[in-house]
Amino acid sequence: MVASGFTDTHRLFLQAAMSRRIMTEVVALDIYARVCQATNDRFDREQFSDFVDQLNTGLNSVELEFRKAQDEVTGTPVIALTNTNGQKIAQVATGYTPTELEYFKHLLDAIVMADDETYCISATAALHEAGHLKNKENKVLVLTKRDAEALLDRFVADKWFIKSAAGAYSLSMRSLLELQTYLKETYGEQIQECTLCMEIITKGQRCSVAACSSRLHQHCASTYFRNMNNPVCPTCHSAWSGKVLIGLSDKMSAPSKVQRRARRTANGAAAIAGDNEDEDIERDEE
Ligand SMILES: [Zn+2]
Ligand SMILES: [Zn+2]
């Protein structure tokens, strides 16, 4: 998969990025600097963006792409090497057996469908999912508790999920970037976007008006409200408390199978009607 037009600098950087998959922009720049040094190329941080564009042009034919984003929680700029043909999990999360991928899908389901927009599940709920695996032919797939525990660790080590200090599993930046297409196509409206940056949001703030769709990343909110004495919602203009949160790791829940089935329509898109009773309940910050 050597793309034409790549120099040794491109190749060395790509190699380093492939083993990491996702890194902060600071780390990426550092690697770029060291690679330039090794190949006697001139290092200019102003040129990094162009360098990434060149890589993306070369990677286009093999359906890979460097994507930039800001970490959902910290706002730190990150860059990830992603698969652009991400409709199916198997195309993205390679290196797992079919049973392991099925477990991965169940975990995604439970996290995305978690009640009250918590977008996380407890370790107990995660292990519980391992007992309900079936393949397309409805044949039961066996995954022991011990195997499931080891696999959960591997998913975290491979940067697909984040494990909080309280032991809750949530989506990582790698998942959000690489599984973007899959998540949107599978879960429809259940996958929400930040009102300001339009990227997927699973951790941040929400409008206290239940019917309002405004969701903001913490870092997007602080930038947007910086010069506002009385912050108001960018969508409905009601007062913005900043205290109604989504993606809480201390609120661990997973919907029952029945709820989940009801919310997923036949074509895989999500219908969230009748699921908003508790939306205006304020939650304390972690
Ligand atoms: Zn945002
Ligand atoms: Zn609003």
UniProtKB/TrEMBL annotation:
Catalytic activity: S-ubiquitinyl-[E2 ubiquitin-conjugating enzyme]-L-cysteine + [acceptor protein]-L-lysine = [E2 ubiquitin-conjugating enzyme]-L-cysteine + N(6)-ubiquitinyl-[acceptor protein]-L-lysine
Family to which the UniProt record says this protein belongs: Belongs to the NSE1 family.
Localization, UniProt: Nucleus
Keywords assigned: DNA damage, DNA recombination, DNA repair, Metal-binding, Nucleus, Transferase, Ubl conjugation pathway, Zinc, Zinc-finger
Quaternary context: Component of the Smc5-Smc6 complex.
Organism encoding this protein: Lobosporangium transversale
Protein's UniProt name: Non-structural maintenance of chromosomes element 1 homolog
GO cellular component assignments: nucleus; Smc5-Smc6 complex
Domain of life: Eukaryota
Organism ancestry: Eukaryota, Fungi, Fungi incertae sedis, Mucoromycota, Mortierellomycotina
InterPro entries, per database record: Nse1, Nse1_RING_C4HC3-type, WH-like_DNA-bd_sf, Znf_RING, Znf_RING/FYVE/PHD
Main location, first listed in the record: nucleus
